[in-house]
Amino acid sequence: MDGILLGLTEVFQFWNLLALFAGVSLGLIVGCLPGLNDNITMAILVPLTFGLDPQIGILLLIGVYCSACFGGSFPAILLKIPGTASSVVTTFDGYPMVQKGEAGTALGISTISSVFGGIVSALILLTLAPFLASQALKFGPAEYFSLVILGLSTIIGMTKRELLLKSIIVTVIGLVIATVGMSPQTGYPRFSMGISNLTGGIPLIPLLIGLFGVSSVLEMSEELIKGTVRKKIQKVKRIIPSRKLIRRLLPTMTTSSLLGSIIGVIPGAGMIMAIYLAYDQAMRMNKDKKEQFGKGIPEGVAAPEAANNAVVAGSMVPLVSLGVPGNSASVIFLGGLMIHGLRPGPALFEDFPEIAYLLIVGFLVAYFFVFPLGILMAKFLVGMILRIPRSVLSGVVLLLCVTGAFAVRNNPFDVWVAILFGVIGFAFGKLNLSYAPLVLAVVLGPLLEMNYQQSMVLSGGSLAIFFQKPLSLVFLIVSAFFVVTPFISRKKKVAPGG
Q: Whole-model pTM?
């Protein structure tokens, strides 16, 4: 308690609090702009913090990290363009809610779920950091491989039975796309077709921008040509959801927050896996509403937003407790601390307790800024975007897509990647194919390959390693359960009539 009080005392000093507020505001803006993300912004800010007090610099970074992934939900919901990769799943139900005239409610759910997930993970960071960090260190290549299999198994749960074969085909296509670039085993480029820009693989952010953003421009253009544009509802009744709806979403938010916190603690697991697992779990918890997922159901927005924000503080657990960065953002935090002569880990709590507890408490306090700023931004953006004519909106979206794709690496090649995947996304819509399996496979493919190869090296080529490791075996059993359950439930439904 003394440490927590020390952290609160540090956070609530005027300049420190102002830095946290500025970081949250900047993160929201960055999250709303496709192509920019928390890592890019934090990497730019780290050198600038050298001349600042350590407390101010750390809180500025915390503010950006906490709010950027939430800010990505705004374009994901309103324009069907994920502002950040962590907002991909939010588009599945967020954009359909906008089409149904529930834009304000969708953004309100996103705000409340994000704050809820962030606070839950911050409390876990505050209380269970050392224990969880020690457990995370037990993960080896076999455990990571099985965890990726678990992530891929969510495709079964998220797909209707009649579309299952199509989803499996799309997953295979995604895994093939993931093999483009340098081979982790040989170090030679694969399937790059002699294009130097592909030696590092197909860039993820331009791929997402094209798949969701450019394809939506093509869809809007088609509607304009055919004259089938649906009239938008111009008035937004409310942003904050009703108490009844919040109570309904509470189990989904709680489960997704805990899931996101656990995934966040595991180094390298990342937000993408967390949001897909949370979405799949939300569908399993709401079996009576499963057919509504993907058509604009509130649970479909609450689950990924609670999960991705829970990953934020969760990813700091191994860094704060052991000095081991859990993801790219944690690496940037490590750099920010080391600039000021600070080294995360147990020694930080002994030598600089005011910094250690400031970092932990800062994640908790940041979300109390995220909520009012998120509600204000939602009210402003919804009213503005819904009044823009579709002909103008399609041009604005295309401009955002092009600039966002280019901004990732300042490379014109990425714009062509976005356009190509925009056409692919448009074709997917015509063929009634889901984007979800493709995105998940592209993200998890490299992890699957790398950890499989490392496991084979450790075991001398024996597959038994995946079953000999307790955690790996548990993940595989859960994966098998996820795959088999939909088929069993289907048979039970068919049995009485057969």
A: 0.79
